[in-house]
Amino acid sequence: MVRKAIFITGGGSGIGRAVAVKFAAQGWMVGLGDISESGMAQTAAMLPAGTCFFVKLDVRDRAGWDAALSAFAESSGGRIDVLFNNAGIPIGGPLADLATDEIERTLDINLKGVLFGAQAAYPYLKAAGPGACLLNTASAAGLYGSPGMSVYCATKFGVRAITESLDGEWAADGIRVRDLMPGFIETPLLDHAPNRGSNHDVRSQVVGAGLEITPASTVADAAWAAVHGEKLHTTVGKTAQRLAFFSRWAPGMLRKQMKGRGVMG
């Protein structure tokens, strides 16, 4: 029996780690790409022996993508069935207060990194045949623009658009293209400040707003279902599900609720 293989960016913690654990438990070969080698080593220690390969990768580096996927393919018997474009960073706060380099870094990692990953993975996914999948981490922030999250929302709307575009573009090649749209997930990113001028971490603002924090394992289950299912966009968590509902069925009400509000400031 041929063992399937998945390459996961941001695999050193959070959602990436939870997805690695999920797929390894199902007998898959797992490749991890991250800027944190120590984080990837910790993830690898949680997986069955012989199921994990990891390589340092900055998703902004197009040539680095080619090198990382080539190295992983050598360890996986030449195949990559799924690329999970998961690496991303948060940013929040009034647009006028954000530094240029903060904006550019977020755009480069969250948006260009996804495009580079898709481009680099395409020949492997095409060779893997029907059932291969590009899975992207979008966000509930890709459902409706929220105050204090303009840059982050722009990147996640972009990821959603990439998913929809490539779903059509790659259909003839038998490649599934899917994305996950989670709300606030229990990951280390919640303990970071939304921008360098903020004195509060994201977690305190989420809790203060009365929003739920979803376990990363729930996202991993959604990732498994997305890779094997027909749903283009998969919302994860109550916040994402509410936004999806109101943006479709009551956009006027949602717009009124959003004015003057924001989670990350």
From TrEMBL:
Family the entry assigns: Belongs to the short-chain dehydrogenases/reductases (SDR) family.
Lineage: Bacteria, Pseudomonadati, Pseudomonadota, Alphaproteobacteria, Sphingomonadales
One Pfam family cited in the UniProt record for this chain: adh_short
Keyword match Oxidoreductase: yes
Name under which the protein is recorded: SDR family oxidoreductase
Organism listed in the record: Novosphingobium cyanobacteriorum
Keywords for this protein: Oxidoreductase
Transmembrane segments: none
Superkingdom of origin organism: Bacteria
